Amino acid sequence: MPMCQRPVKPAKLKPKYPRPVYLPQPQPVKQTKAMSAIEAITNATLGFVVSWSFTFWGLPLFGIEPDAIQALWITASYFFISALRTYAIRRAFNF
Q1: I want to staple 44 with a disulfide (CB 3.0 to 4.6 A). Which of 54, 58, 67, 83 is the partner?
Q2: Which of 71, 72, 91, 82 lies closest to 46, judged by CA?
Q3: What residues of the chain score a pLDDT lower than 70?
Q4: What are the DSSP calls for 2-70, one per residue?
Q5: Measured in Å, how far apart are the chain's first and last C-alpha atoms?
Q6: What is the pLDDT of residues 61-87, one digit of tens each?
Q7: Cβ contact 4:63 at 8 Å
Q8: What residue ranges do the domains of the chain occupy?
């Protein structure tokens, strides 16, 4: 190395981007059993109204003519099955 040149310090390079900050991810909120039951009953109740309406007014289009009480019992059967099914599925997904 010639005498007229001094050794050069390596330059400190600044990072282009700041370091990433890792924040904790929010955890999904699980429903309580009571809220699952309320959701299942609400869903089944709305389904009950739609189903009864179709049973009473829609089935005659297919040649089946239940009276109002028969339509109510048919729909009530499906209502309870639907409520239990929805509750069970909701609890399984919150497990």
Answers
A1: 83
A2: 82
A3: 1-4, 13, 15
A4: -TT-PPPPPPPPPPSSPPPP-PPPPPPPPPPHHHHHHHHHHHHHHHHHHHHHIIIIIGGGGT----HHH
A5: 73
A6: 889 888 888 888 888 888 888 878 888
A7: no
A8: 33-93
